[in-house]
Amino acid sequence: MDRYDQKLSDELNQFPNETDVSVDLEHRVLTQLRNKSMSTHASEGKRKNLMKLVPYLAMAACLAILIPLGYSQFHSHSAKSSSPTGASKKVTKTKMKSSSQAKSKQTKTSKKSNPYWFTEYNQTISKPEYANVNGFISDMANYYNNKVNKKAFYSSKLQRQMHMANVVMAYVNYYLPKVKNQNKKQKLTEAKKAALHFCLKAPKKKSDSADLQKLKTIFNQLDH
Amino acid sequence: MDHAKEIEDLFHQYKKDVHNFLLYYMKTTDVDDVFQETFSNAYKALNHNAAISNTRSWIISIARNAAIDYLRKEESYKKKLERFKNKNVRHNPLSVDEQVQLDERKTAILNAIYQLKKSYQEVVILRGLKEFSVSEAAHILNWNENKVKLTYHRALKKLRQILDQGGDRIGSL
Description:
heterodimer; A: mainly alpha; 8 helices; 75% helix; B: mainly alpha; globular
């Protein structure tokens, strides 16, 4: 550092190093610091309380997720096991699958009105109540003999038929133990077998559906 | 752990020093908000158990950061104001020397300092006006010591040059 710089530096060092702070400003800063201190205490207390609650909240959240899941599992399980004649597992699965398909279709085409038999099908799942077996058989035969709504809710005929077969399964399972007439009992058993076979086979083409034809015939016979 | 007592002690010990630094650094007498912000930030830092080796340089570095933040915000505010009102809002730098009560020569030097570029201003304020050591200034500016020495040297040369150009040679030189 040369002479000039040293002189300049010395002169700079002679500048006042401190300035007075107004009482008002000093008071303001001190008040703020004290308030902060108090709020820090308060927030620490709150944080501690919240930290205590965290495990309970986590547990509540877990329960809120798990309980509905468990309930739905239990519900589906009990629905399966409460089938009156103990329908086979595969059929129940098919039924569930088809009902879920129906639901998804329903949401997709919510503007379309539900076909008559689809509404009936939904009712069969929740409360299969007919006055007697004859009424059911008659209705089934009617549905099956092209009294189904022409504007089909389902995109393909096959899909509709599959649902129909499932409806048959549900009704037959329900009414079979109640039928006294041996002839009707036998016909219902045949219908059940045909429907089951049809469901399992799931024919790709209309021409393949011999079981469906058989089912139709049986219902025609039952109707008379 | 709360540091309420500690921050009050710091406030009483360094309030004048910090206020003085802010006056020089911000070139304005309107430093109340930044002054308040400085101690508020210092209190936060204490509560976060900040490592402090030199208290004075630590509090001045906090003041510097608060001032930088404030000036940046103010700059953006000014731009917005100019855009909408087409009006130039500026602080009067001469008010600082009135507040610090400088004589004519010192006022000339201070005005010359404000003509330097920002890094020179900072190092002159810290090393020259506030008499921080090289290591303290390096800590505050977050530079290495050699850079502080070199920049200060260059800043003094530039300052002398400005003063010479203004026909205001220092002392008997």
